UniProtKB/TrEMBL annotation:
Classification lineage: Eukaryota, Viridiplantae, Streptophyta, Embryophyta, Tracheophyta
Family: Belongs to the AB hydrolase superfamily. Epoxide hydrolase family.
Name of this protein: AB hydrolase superfamily protein YfhM
Record keywords: Hydrolase
AB hydrolase-1 domain ranges (all copies): 27-100
Domain of life per record: Eukaryota
Name of a matching Pfam family: Abhydrolase_1
One term of GO molecular function: hydrolase activity
Organism: Vitis vinifera
Matches recorded under PANTHER family: EPOXIDE HYDROLASE
Amino acid sequence: MSMEGITHRRIHTYGIWMHVAELGKLPLVLLIHGFPKLWSSWNYQMTHLAKHGYRVVAPDMRGYKDFDSPPDLASYTILHLVGDLIGLLDQLGEEKWGMTGAQKWPARLPLEAR
């Protein structure tokens, strides 16, 4: 897997820290992993999309790897996950974006965010 050029940072939003991997320039596309994956499951897609002119951001989701893991199980609802992504988008400062997900629950996030 080539991870050349991918940058990593932690973003603080809504009182928690999340890890994101980024590559490329605008327009923005979010790649959301499912269980039990991490941001790195999108490595090939990140490289491909960036080569075609997109800014690709792949976060680790709540409770995974370098994302804060709140101890209360009630902190892992769809509303919390959507809130994390809204906070991420706010911190990235982008008004226009696209999103895709892997597995079942990430597919619901764009619908819940409306």
